[in-house]
Amino acid sequence: MIYHGVRMTIKPGVSPEKLEAALESLRNQGRVIPSVKSFIVGPEHGGDFEWGALYVIEDLDGYWEYLIHPAHAHSDEIGLPLVDRFESYDVVDDAEPEMGEKIAELHRRRFEGNAELTKLVTDLGSYSGSGAPTA
User: Fold this and answer.
1) Does the first or last residue of the chain, that is N or C, have fewer Cβ atoms within 10 Å of its Cβ?
2) How far apart are CA 26 and CA 39, in angstroms?
3) Packing angle between helix 99-112 and helix 115-122, nearest 10 degrees?
């Protein structure tokens, strides 16, 4: 299993309506992407971020489906312009030493095929995560 998490802080001045639309889009990813087995989206407590989401996915094929699904692209399009700091991370139950690199490669493949997404990510105040693009 792969537990894919994202954490974020929002730019000052973002309207509550735009923030709620972005959070609802993250929830929608969990509802409509077939490879997502379970999910949660909500405020983060005890950390250095304001909001977070966690998606449970069975394997790398499912992870790829999640990454390229139109619902995920929609969240990126409406949500990333509102974000100041973003962190993506994964927790897996597979001790395979190459698992982290395999996940990073999926992200790199996605960024390489999408210049608009890469620009959205590189324009953030900060972004960290597997296969993060560079400006």
Assistant:
1) C
2) 9
3) 110
Name the one residue in this structure whose structure tokens are 């690199």.
101
Of 129, 78, 80, the C-alpha closest to 108 is 129
Structure tokens belonging to residue 40: 């949660």
Distance CA 19, CA 4 (A): 21
Closest CA to 7 of 83, 99, 113, 121: 83
Cβ atoms of residues 131 and 93 within 8 Å: no
The 3-state DSSP class for residue 43 equals strand
| Residue 126 structure tokens | 């900060």
Give the side-chain half-sphere CA count within 13 A for 38. 5
Question: Which tens digit of pLDDT belongs to each residue from 5-42?
Answer: 999 999 999 999 999 999 999 999 999 999 999 999 99
Conformational region of residue 46, where left means phi above 0, alpha means psi within -120 to 50, and beta covers everything else: left
| Residues 4, 88 contacting (CB under 8 angstroms) | yes
Calculate the dihedral angle through the C-alpha atoms of 63, 68, 74, 80, rounding to the nearest 10 degrees: 70
At residue 76, what is the residue type? D
